Amino acid sequence: MPVGLFRVCLLVITAIVNHPLFFPKENGTVPENTEEIIQKMKEREESLRLEQLRLEQEIADQEATQKALEKAAVVVEESKEEKVRWDMWTALSMVIFLLIELWRQDFQEGNWQDTGGEEDDMAVLGKAFKGVAFPNKAVLASFYEKRILATTGDMARMRETVEGFADDLLEALRSVCNRDADMEVEDCVGVGSMYENWRVRKPFVCDLIVPFAPPEPYCFCYQTWCSGDSFPPDEQGYGTIKVCRADEDATGCICDKTKLGEDMLCLLHSQVSSTRPSSEMEDLLCFKNTQYLDANQVMKWFQIAVTKAWNRISHKYEFDLSFSLLDSPGALKIKFKSGKSIAFNLTPVVQYENSDVYFISHFPRSSLAADVPSSTHWFLTFAVYERRFIQLVSKTLPANACHVSCLQILSFLHGKQCSLTGPSGLTNYHLKTVLLHLLQARPSQDWAPEKLEARLQDMLKFLERCLHEKKLYHFFIGNGKVPAELGFPIIFQRAEPLNLFRPFVLRRDIYRKMVDTFHEMLRNMSALINEYTVHIPLAHTNGIRKE
Fold it and tell me: What does this protein do (predicted)?
C-alpha cells in the first residue's frame, strides 16, 4: 500500500513538472506544425545519406589512388633497378669495346713492325692474291735492268739543267718585283720522285718548290689543324696563313686594338704605319676583306711574275718557255728548236716557322688536294723531310739496297695499269708512304739486293691490308719514332695520325675503283713484267704461286 501510494505521488509530481504552463511560451521548443518538422527531418536524412555516399566514394577513390601510387612506386623501383643493371652492362660493354679497339690498334702496329713473317703472310694475303704468280729474282732483275735503268739514266743531267735555269729565272723574278710591296722569293728546293731517284714514268718532270715571304713590316702567322685551333675533320692536314704586322707581334702594341682618342698618339707607331685598308691587304695577296693569304691570288701573282722574269732573260736562251697546263699555274715547259722539251713545276710555298715543313698552294698532277676546303686553306707538305729520311736510311742499308727498286717497279706497274683502265684514287704518293713505313719497320739487312722479290711482296701485302681497312697513315704525322737527326717539328709528331685514305671512306665509287685497279694490277703483273723482260729459260721463270 505505501509503495502504491508512493508511485501515484511520483506520477502526479512528474506530470505537474512537465506541464507546459510551468515554462514561458517564448522559450518553448515544441513546433506548432508537426508535418513540417517531419518533412524537414526527412530532407535532413536524405542530405545526410547523400553526404555519406559522397564520403564513401571519396574514401574509395583515395584508396584506389593510394594503390595506384604504391603500384607505380613498385614499377619505378623495378625500373631503377633494371636501369642500374642496364647501365652497368652498357659501361662494361663500352670498356670491353675500348679494350678490344686499343688491342686491335696495337696489334696492327705490331704487324707493321713485322710485315715479313710467314704467319702474318696468311693473315695479310686476301682473295686477290690467290693464284697470283710473283716473278722470281731472275725475271725481276732482267726487268729492272732493261726497263728501269735503261730509261732513268738521263735524270741527273735533266735535274742539273732545270735547277740552273730555275735559279736564273728566280733571280730575274726578284729584279722585276717591287721589294717594298711584292713578296720576297727565296731559292728553290727540289722535291719528289725525281730528287728521290725513283721516278720511272715518262715524261720526267722536276718538282721545285719556291718559298716566299711578305714584305716588311709584315710577317706570316700560322694556324694548323694540330695547333689547338678548331678545324673540322675534313680539314686535317691543312692550315691557314694570316698576314700580320711584324712590329705588332714584337712589341705587343695595342694601339690598333684600343681607341686612344683624337688627342692621343702611340709612341711606337705613327699615323703612317696604321693598319692598311682592305684594298692594300688584297695587294698582299689576301682573300677579299680578310687577312688570310689566298692561294689563288698567290698563283696569279707568281704566274705574272714568272712571265715578266722570262721576258727579261729570254734573249739569253735558245729555247722557248711556256705554261704547259691550265689547271697547274706553275707547270712550265722548255721547248728546244730540235723539238725536244723539258717539263718542270715551279710551285710557291710558305715555310712553316723555321722548319722544312711548307704550306703548298697546290699539288701538280696530284689528287692529294683535289678537294681543298677554300683558297685560304693550304695543305702542308713534308716532302723535304721525306727526301731526307730516305737519304738517312739509305746510309744504313746494304750496298745496292732494293728499297728504291721496289718502289720503282711498283710505280711502273701502277702507271701501266692506270694507262689501261684509267686513273684511280691510288697515287704514287701512297706507294711511297708504304715504302716509308716498311723502311722504318724492317731491319737494314732485309733490304739486301737479293731480297727484292720478298720486299716487293711485302709492299703489295701491306698495301692490300691498307685498302681493306681503308687506313693508310701519313708517315710523319703522329709518328713518334721519327729519327731525331731529321729535326722534325714535335707538334706534328704529337698530332693524331692522319689517314690518307679517309677521303675514300665516304666516296665509295672512288674507293671501289681504287681497289679494282689494285686487283687488276696484281693479275696483270706477270704479263706487264714479261713484256719488258728478255727471254729467260722456262726453268728460271717459274713464279712463286700463292695458294
Answer: Enhances Ca(2+)-mediated inhibition of inositol 1,4,5-triphosphate receptor (ITPR) Ca(2+) release.
Residue 473, domain CATH: 3.30.460.90
Q: Please say whether the beta carbons of 414 and 512 come within 8 A.
A: no
Among 507, 485, 270, 268, CA closest to 370: 507
Cell readout for 41 is: 527531418
Helix H or strand E encompassing 155? helix 155-176
Q: Which domain holds residue 234?
A: 122-247+282-534
The verdict on residue 238 lying in a domain is yes
Whether omega for the bond prior to residue 217 falls within 30 degrees of 0, making it cis, is: yes
pLDDT tens per residue across span 429-477 = 999 999 999 999 999 999 999 999 999 999 999 999 999 999 999 999 9
CA-atom Rg of the chain in angstroms = 45
In a domain, residue 226? The reply is yes
- What is the DSSP pairing of strand 378-381 with strand 238-245? antiparallel
CA distance 445 to 398: 7
Number of domains observed in the structure of the chain: 1
Query: Cell numbers 689501261 label which residue?
Result: 420
Does 148 reside within a domain? yes
Question: CA-based angle 160:161:167, to the nearest 5?
Answer: 85
In tens, the pLDDT along 304-325 reads 999 999 999 999 999 999 987 7
Model pLDDT for residues 499-524, shown as the tens digit of each residue = 999 888 888 888 999 999 999 999 88
**Separation of alpha carbons 426 and 428, rounded Å:** 7
Residues 240 and 237: their CA atoms lie apart, in Å, by 11
Question: Out of 58-72, 294-308, 377-391, 485-499, which region has the weakest mean confidence (pLDDT)?
Answer: 58-72
Share in percent of the chain as helix, strand, coil (round to 5): 55, 10, 35
Asked whether residue 171 is assigned to any structural domain, the reply reads: yes
